[in-house]
Structures are given as structure tokens and as C-alpha cells.
Amino acid sequence: MSDFHQNGIITDFHNLTRRPVESLEADLVRFARRRPMSLILPSLYSELEGPALERIIEEIAGAPYLDEVVIGLDRASHDQFQHARRFFSRLPQRHRILWNDGPRLRALDEELEARGLAPQEPGKGRNVWYCAGYVQASARSEVVALHDCDILTYDRGMLARLFYPVVHPHFNYEFCKGYYPRIADGKLNGRVSRLMVTPLLRALKIMAGPLPYLDYLDSFRYPLSGEFAMRSDVLEGIRIPADWGLEIGVLSEVQRNHSTNRLCQVDLADAYDHKHQPVSEADATAGLNRMSLDIAKALYRKLATQGVTFSAEGFRTLKATYYRMALDLIEAYDHDAIMNGLTLDRHTEEQAVELFARNLLEAGSAFLDNPGERPFIPSWNRVRAAIPDLPERLCEAVETDNEPAGVL
What we know:
Elements: E1 11-13, H1 21-32, E2 37-44, H2 53-61, E3 66-74, H3 78-88, E4 94-99, H4 103-114, H5 124-138, E5 143-146, H6 156-167, E6 175-179, E7 183-184, E8 187-188, H7 191-208, H8 212-218, E9 228-231, H9 232-237, E10 240-241, H10 246-257, E11 263-267, H11 287-305, H12 312-339, H13 346-369, E12 376-377, H14 380-386, H15 390-402
Helix pairs in contact: 1-6, 5-15, 7-8, 7-12, 7-13, 10-11, 11-13, 12-13
């Protein structure tokens, strides 16, 4: 059971009473009459063959308040898209699949590319961006949620709790972020959040001062969670990062556009497990290695927009400050794990910290060498300004792909 502490920056919705999911859903059914809800599921085709998505779809099928499910499907051939249509057909809710590798969506992507508006690299950010464009063009929902397709411990209560703060008619929240403890198989997980993001934010506070942005990020219990819900008009105005800085980038965008008293976080589960990324220490383009680089660059870019000046000497000082804080946290996590009967390998934890510390410098060098890098995909407001009918044509392409005879 979580505590009831409110830190004064972001409202925290706790799980104090283990309220039954049926009770939450009864409220959501009523709320849906005023604020219909859609769910975005960014998915690789390979996840249809994995252990998590089957359960996720079974659970979502039982959510009586949900109006629409939008699946972004990456890395799928023609036959695999057809299989995906059969796989998701069990959903009783209206559902649409964005076949991102299909000819219709590829043609729209080429048109955007010619105008300098297309996502520059494949991945989750690109997938989510196209799904967001479709949701806005279809205009069926007032509230949109998003979560990953590899959650092994999924149950539909997670989705109900994620939606609830944003759809309640007497609440004024526009954005909700999920959190949970990263525990599985008797181990404490979530290394990038625990060992990289938290000590980095606190080191940056020492280096740059107590900026509101840093206090804001540090108030989230799990800033790297992939679960969030928002009002549809929030989705229209945010820019989505194309790299692995997606979660930090989204938090940065909503803080830029909205007052913090309209943002909140919610306790989704007692335990959470999903596909674990390898460290990939020898490959800076994959795993936690790539993730830590992208997150560091995302933070540097954001702080630069707020007047923080960086230098090579400053990044070396930041690395040293971070390293000491991260090592102190390892000891705290180790003691916490022991008291709770969990295991934590201090050797691999320190190896991860050493990698993250090196990457703070690598990310700093990349930032200084290319200060004009544009990692964000343009907002859909900008796309509509440049090509007014493209969102509607995206919607038409998706509808045609999902018709029985619509696939080329």
C-alpha cells in the first residue's frame, strides 16, 4: 500500500483502499457519456507473438467504458497485418490498426518527408505520433490513454485507474502519469529511473540551481513509465520525441503548455513487470545504453531553453556529482530490498552507474557538437497548418486499410 503523501507540486492519486475495479468502472461508464475514451497501443508485430499482449487484449475487452482502441502496428508485412486484424478482432470496442509499413501510410509519410515534417527515425515515438494524428482526426474521444504492449502483469484495473483522474467530471486534470514499483521475480528493477534519472536530476539541481522544471520532474515517482492519459486537446499541441527520450519529452511538453495544478500521477499497481531491455554496454545504439544517452540529451536540450549554459568542464563536474549521488542511492536501494526480502546485485548496479556516468559525458559532447539538433516530431497543429487536409487523409487511409477489402 502506498503512503498518502502529497509533495505539493504534482497531485498524487494513491491506492489507499484497493477499491474494486468494478466500482471504478461503474463510475467510468457514467463519465464516458460526457468524456468518451480512447486507448492507444503502440505495438511491434513481434509483440503479437509474445507472452504479454494476449492477456492485455483479454483484459481490455472487459473494459465497458472504453469507446475505441487504436493500435499502431510496426514492422508488419501484408500477411502479418492480416494476422493482426484477426488477433485484435476479439475486442468488442471499436478498434483500428495503423499499418505503419503499409503503402497508404507510407505514401503519407513520404509527403510529410518532402515538407520536412515526417518523423526522422522509426520507433515508438513515430508510432505514437501517427496514432495521435489518427485519434485527433477521427475526433471520437475527449480523453486518450496510452500504454505499452509488453506488460506481463497487466490487469484492466490499471487502465481504469489511469483514466479516472482525467475523466472525472468534477476534476480539472488534463494529464495523468502512471507509476508503480518495478518488482519482479524477487528483484528490484527499474535501473534507468532509479540509478540514472533520479540522481541526475538531483545533480542538475546542484549545478543549475532549484529550477521549477527540475523540481517538477523530480516530483514524479516513476518519470519513465510508459502509461499516461490526457485530454485530447493536450495531445494536439505537444511535440513527441522520436528517440528514447519519449517519456521525459512528453512530461516536458505538458509542463511547458499547462499549469502543474492540472497535472497529476496515479498509483497503478502493486507490482509491474515487462520486457527488460539489455544494458548493451558495447552498443550505444541499443538497450539501456541508448536509452540513457537519449534521456540525458533530452534533459540538456530542455534546460538550455531555460537559460542554463553548458560547457565541457560543466559536464565533467556534473558527471562527478551524479556519480557520488548514484552510489549513495545504490546503498539505500540495497537496504530497502533486503528489508523487503528482495535481491539486488550491487555489482551490476555499480556497473550500470558507471555506464550512465560515461554517457552523461557522451551526451554532453553530442549536445555541444550539435546544439541545433531537432529531436521532436512536429506537433499535429503544425502539420495541419502546413497541409490542412493531411490528418483527414490519414484517417481515411486507416479506415480503408481496416475495411475487409481495403488492403492493397
